[in-house]
Structures are given as C-alpha cells and as structure tokens.
Write a structure and sequence with these properties.
By secondary structure, the chain is an alpha/beta fold. Helices cover 38% and strands 23% of the residues. The strands form 4 sheets. Strands 1, 2, 3, 4, 5, 6 and 7 form a 7-stranded mixed β-sheet that branches. Strands 17, 18, 19, 20, 21 and 22 form a 6-stranded antiparallel β-sheet that branches. The protein has a 5-stranded mixed β-sheet with strand order 9-8-10-11-12, with helices on both faces. Its cofactor is Mg(2+).
C-alpha cells in the first residue's frame, strides 16, 4: 500500500488500516516499524492505535530497515507492518505488511481484504473498539537483528577491505554501523544522516543517476567495492573496484553458489524470469535446482515456501533467504559479497566476471496507449517462428538459442517494461531494437 501523504492517505486512514490488519490477521499481537520519512512516525503510531483499539498488543520497534522489521516478525513470530515508501520520492509513504514469521501479505493473501475494510470504514466510521484495548510497548531489535545476520555468514577469516557505503540518507545509515561493527573493514560512509527528504539523491540505486556519487567515491578512495542501499535498506546494489556496476543477476548467482555450498551442494534456488541466463546455469553447475517464477516478492516468497528453496533472487536486487524466514534482506546479500571478496585475493571485477556471462539491456520502459494491444502485436510478430519459443508466465517472453526478451505491463502506469539478453552485445542490441519497434508502434 503506497501513496502521497496527506493527499492520498493520512493518519486517520492509517488508524483504519491498523484496525483492518488486526481483523484480517486475527492476531493477538503485532510488531510495527518505520523508516526516516517525516510522516512515518505519525502514521505508524496511528496504525498502532487502530490495532490496539481492536484488542491487539502492539510492539513498536521504531526506526528500522524493512528487513529489520522482517527479522522482528520472524524472531517474535508476529504479524508485522513496516511504514516506508522504499525508493519512492519524499512525498510518498506506504505500508509493507506481513503475517507471523514474515510470511507475505499480497493481493490474494489479505491485502485486498484489508483495503476493502479500510475503505468501508472510512465511509461508515471506525468499528466498535474491543472491550479491553491492547497495549503499546517499545522494543529495540537492532543488535539482535545484526547478530542474527552475522550468524548466517562466516566473516571471521576475510582480509581487510575498504568499502564505500551510500545509504542515500535512508535506513542503511541506521543499520550498517551496527551490522558492520568489528569487521576488518575500512568503512567510508556516504549520506548516513537519516533524512526522508533525500537532500543528496533519491534512494533508488536502480536508477544509474543515483549511484554516480558512489562510483566516484570508490575510484577516489581506491576502495575494494561500493555498496548502495535503497530508502528502506532492503535492497543492495554493488559496484566493483573500478566503480562499474555489478549486475544484480551476477550477485544472485554468486550468493546462490555460496548458499548451495553451505547446504551441501544441493537445494532449490528461485529466480524470476528477467534474471540473466547466468543464474540458472550457475545454480546447476553448483548442484542446485533452479526454479523460474514471475516478478514480484509475493511470487518469490510463495515459491520459496512451496519448494523449500534455500535462496531466491530478483534482478531488482531483492535477495531472499530460507534462514531469514524466506524474506528479502539486502544486508545479508551484502555480507555474502564481503565474505566472497574477502576470502580471496583478487579484485571484485574478476570475482564476478564468472557470474556475468551475457549482454543485457537493463529494463527499458515504454509508454503505450494500450498495453494489451501492444503485447498482442508483439506476440503476433514472433508467433509461428520455428527458431523461438513463447511463454506468458509474466507478460510475454520470447526465447531463442542465443537470446531472449521479456515484456511485462506495469500494474500502476501505462508502461510496458522490456528486458533483453543475448550471447553478445550486437545480438542483444538487434533484438532489443526489434522488440521496441513493435512496442512503440
């Protein structure tokens, strides 16, 4: 749930969402956290009031990253609500909700019902309060969260590393100092001051413009690597010692190989359908079973639970771990990168080269008048060809022997999103341009 505050939602509506969350989950207790946006504390407290009025005991963990909230939900076995708009601009805020054990709340697992109740009550008035209201108490989980993450990656024998971290004035500035404490790291912090107005750049490292400062700092400092977190610090992006971005698919493959080794050289790894071909190849080479799924955290988490997967990765830099309640944590992925680099003497660029085998386009958005019509035209352009296969697991994917592309409609904007990959740059550019020509008419 996400929107502009106070134009699209405000504290009275947050209170109704708290009451609806309490009713839909049926929980006796919940946990709530929030990010550094100016509106977050008030919205979180309003949500707590709404839940407590329904008789639910509320534990407030205060300022936290989204994966710190997932930690609290898992460790305390409570449903949770995180107030954040992630990488969105300052005027936005939202709620990421989960059931006990960090299990997802998606459209088909409670979100639609929560929204319907809040909408109904906003017109007819709040429901009757419980005879005995719940309590609201505070608890600090930061050190326990850091301790749990550090227990999942062996960093005891890594060599000293110089790392530049760009927190983007987001929650990484809150969590990194505690998680990285006592590691053999020369930490160069950038924009660690918590500021939900994002005075330096948007906290969205997926946009290349927002990692320019990090790239320059890595080069200037002669650092071994750079790490950027988004606003709620649940995603991490990596640049190598040259300042060049490392593909999230390469990070997915690297972490997958480490998780498979940790689990005896076997296990299932989930990847969405726009990750590089490198990911399933590396998974198979390391004894694992790759499972392809739709884009989106609810689909990844559902497949993690269904298959008992040890790890899952998305090309958007969300990384999911069975040992973290199947939830996503960019911080744990960052620790894996530090461990992998620190366990050998070579530079990061050489380490990740084995996991980055193909030429990718990145995601290219096109504004269209009619998403369905453009997708149908694209399907018609490739249907019937002997050299390609088509599937519609998520949008349209067209696959040939040495290239593939996927086109997915945005759920919130009149956009089609193209991702293409091929064995070489020239082939990728040719396929990319052919697809864009049909998409854009």
């Amino acid at each position: 749930m996400r929107g502009v505050v106070p134009d699209q939602w405000d504290e009275p509506l947050a209170e109704l969402f708290g009451a609806a969350f309490a009713q839909v989950t049926g929980a006796a207790a919940i946990v709530i956290g929030y990010d550094m946006r100016p509106s977050s504390p008030g919205l979180a407290r309003a949500f707590a009031r709404g839940a407590a009025a329904r008789g639910v005991d509320v534990t407030e963990i205060g300022l936290c990253s989204t994966d710190q909230l997932y930690y609290a939900s898992g460790a305390l076995n409570l449903p949770g609500a995180m107030f954040t708009a992630s990488h969105n601009p300052a005027q936005y805020n939202g709620i990421k909700m989960c059931r006990a054990g960090a299990a997802p709340v998606g459209q088909d697992t409670g979100l639609a019902e929560i929204r319907e109740l809040a909408e109904r009550w906003s017109g007819s008035g709040a429901p009757e309060p419980a005879a005995t209201p719940g309590t609201i108490t505070q608890r600090d989980t930061l050190k326990d969260y850091a301790k749990h993450l550090r227990s999942l990656v062996d960093l005891t024998s890594i060599r000293p590393l110089k790392v530049v971290v760009d927190a983007g004035n987001g929650m990484g500035g809150h969590t990194v100092p505690t998680v990285f404490v006592d590691l053999p790291l020369d930490l160069v912090p950038m924009y660690f001051e918590l500021d939900g107005t994002f005075p330096n750049h948007e906290a969205n490292p997926l946009d290349p413009a927002n990692i320019v400062d990090l790239q320059e700092h890595v080069r200037q400092e002669g650092a071994d690597l750079g790490i950027a977190f988004d606003g709620d610090a649940d995603r991490c992006f990596v640049v190598d010692e040259k300042g060049d971005p490392v593909s999230p698919s390469a990070i997915t493959a690297l972490v997958a190989s480490r998780e498979l080794a940790k689990h005896g050289g076997s296990g299932t790894v989930i990847h969405n359908l726009i990750t590089s071909w490198s990911v399933p190849e590396v998974v198979r080479e390391n004894g694992g079973n790759p499972v392809r799924t739709r884009v989106g955290h609810s689909f990844i988490k559902a497949e993690m639970a269904r298959t008992g997967a040890i790890f899952g990765g998305e090309h958007s830099a969300h990384y999911y771990f069975r040992e973290f309640w199947n939830a996503d944590t960019g911080m744990l992925a960052a620790l894996h990168v530090l461990a992998a680099l620190g366990e050998q003497e070579g530079p990061l660029s050489a380490l990740v080269a084995q996991y980055d085998r193909y030429a990718g386009s990145g995601e290219i958005n096109s504004t269209v008048d009619d998403q369905k019509a453009r997708l149908a035209a694209l399907k018609a352009a490739y249907e019937g060809r002997d050299d390609v296969q088509l599937d519609e697991l998520d949008g349209l994917t067209v696959t040939s022997a040495d290239w593939w592309f996927n086109v997915r409609p945005s759920n919130t904007e009149p956009l089609l999103r193209l991702n293409a990959e091929a064995c070489d740059e020239a082939t990728m550019a040719k396929i990319r341009d052919e697809a864009l020509a049909v998409i854009r008419g």
